[in-house]
């Protein structure tokens, strides 16, 4: 890649990555799936052959976001072992808590998404990242990025228009630039979220003190908990490219091209959200689920612990995907 992207780009490792994938990285991920899940599955929403055709020459895999590390790691593993695709992965630079983590992540084809800068710097960072992603796509590379900045702690997965705006900076028709990305949404479903109690605690801390912010240590704890925790049944469900739906939408509503940028982006967000929501795996919760929730509450140790609020938030995390699924399939 061009030197202008040296600060954010993934390392150019080529055949070295291929060797380490199959000799080291993927065996570790497979062992982790055996030990920390009740099954790791790649599935499809709709016509599998069409989906495979959509991703054959490179795709932009946009997903909901549950776990800091494993979301991208297992998707990369599944795509590599099924289709020999190793996507470039956008990872927030807040996760590079230590220099060695940054080097490992960039070696594994992760590029840095810079966060936490002042307003002007954020705009320049977004332009820089957008140019890098367009360069990758122009070369037929596949990419993974979450549909929003950070994880949806309440599991109410909604695509942020700001993410799409960043991806489409520059001159030209917005919808054509989005189609050029070839966005193929992916639904990620964990039967159990190892970080559920951490997310609930963060929500109370934020409620009690709006100025509260996570530290690098908090990020490391979330990474470790997500990697080591039990997830039950895990399903990654590929969905088709959104390009045909964009064409259908514009054929029916040509006036959308003249709308303010925020509205244009929202139309695309709605399509992505529908794909992700329809692709959820819905898990039947047994009579022991209440006991599970109580066990998670017992792990929370924060000042002024509000068990009623915390219980409500954990229940919400597991009920929101089902609610959104029902709405999406009935619409």
Describe this structure in words.
This protein has a single domain (3-28, 35-330), classed as Glycerol-3-phosphate (1)-acyltransferase, CATH 3.40.1130. It is 53% helix and 11% strand. It is built from 13 helices and seven strands. It has helices at residues 15-36, 48-55, 70-83, 99-107, 119-138, 161-167, 174-181, 196-208, 216-228, 243-252, 261-278, 289-297, 307-330, and strands spanning 39-44, 60-63, 88-92, 110-113, 143-146, 183-190, 233-238. Strands 1-7-6-2-5-3-4 form a seven-stranded mixed β-sheet, sandwiched between helices. α4 links the parallel β3 and β4. α6 (161-167) crosses α11 (261-278), α8 (196-208) crosses α13 and α11 packs across α13 (307-330).
Side by side, the strands of the main sheet go 1-7-6-2-5-3-4
Name the helicity range: 40-55%
What is the number of helical segments per DSSP (H or I, 4+ residues)? 13
- Looking at the overall shape, the CATH architecture is 3-Layer(aba) Sandwich
The best one-word shape is globular
Features:
331 residues, Glycerol-3-phosphate (1)-acyltransferase, 7 strands, 53% helix
Structural topology:
Elements (H helix, E strand, L loop, with lengths): L14 H22 L2 E6 L3 H8 L4 E4 L6 H14 L4 E5 L6 H9 L2 E4 L5 H20 L4 E4 L14 H7 L6 H8 L1 E8 L5 H13 L7 H13 L4 E6 L4 H10 L8 H18 L10 H9 L9 H24 L1
Parallel strand pairs: 1-7, 2-5, 2-6, 3-4, 3-5
Antiparallel strand pairs: 6-7
Helix pairs in contact: 6-11, 8-13, 11-13
């Amino acid at each position: 890649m061009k030197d202008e992207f040296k600060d954010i780009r993934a390392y150019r490792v080529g055949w070295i990555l291929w060797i380490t994938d199959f000799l080291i990285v993927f065996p570790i991920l497979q062992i982790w799936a055996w030990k920390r899940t009740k099954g790791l599955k790649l599935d499809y929403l709709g016509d599998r052959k069409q989906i495979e055709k959509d991703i054959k020459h490179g795709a932009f895999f946009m997903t909901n976001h549950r776990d800091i590390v494993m979301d991208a790691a297992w998707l990369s593993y599944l795509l590599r072992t099924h289709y020999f695709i190793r996507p470039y992965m956008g990872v927030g630079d807040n996760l590079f808590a230590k220099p060695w983590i940054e080097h490992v992540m960039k070696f594994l084809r992760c590029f840095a998404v810079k966060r936490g800068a002042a307003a002007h710097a954020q705009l320049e960072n977004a332009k820089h990242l957008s140019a890098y992603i367009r360069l990758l796509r122009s070369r037929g590379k596949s990419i993974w990025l979450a549909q929003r900045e950070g994880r949806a702690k309440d599991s109410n997965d909604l695509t942020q228009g700001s993410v799409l705006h960043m991806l489409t900076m520059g001159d030209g028709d917005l919808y054509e630039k989005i189609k050029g990305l070839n966005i193929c949404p992916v639904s990620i479903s964990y039967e159990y979220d190892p970080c559920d109690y951490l997310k609930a605690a963060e929500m109370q801390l934020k409620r009690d003190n709006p100025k509260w912010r996570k530290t690098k240590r908090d990020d490391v704890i979330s990474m470790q908990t997500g990697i080591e925790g039990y997830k039950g049944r895990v399903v990654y469900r590929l969905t088709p490219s959104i390009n045909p739906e964009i064409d259908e939408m514009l054929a029916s509503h040509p006036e959308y091209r003249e709308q303010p940028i925020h509205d244009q982006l929202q139309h695309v967000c709605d399509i992505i959200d529908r794909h992700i929501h329809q692709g959820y795996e819905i898990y039947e919760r047994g009579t022991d689920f209440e006991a599970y929730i109580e066990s998670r509450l017992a792990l929370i140790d924060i000042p002024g612990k509000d068990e009623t609020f915390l219980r409500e938030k954990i229940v919400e995390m597991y009920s929101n995907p089902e609610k959104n699924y029902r709405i999406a399939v009935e619409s």
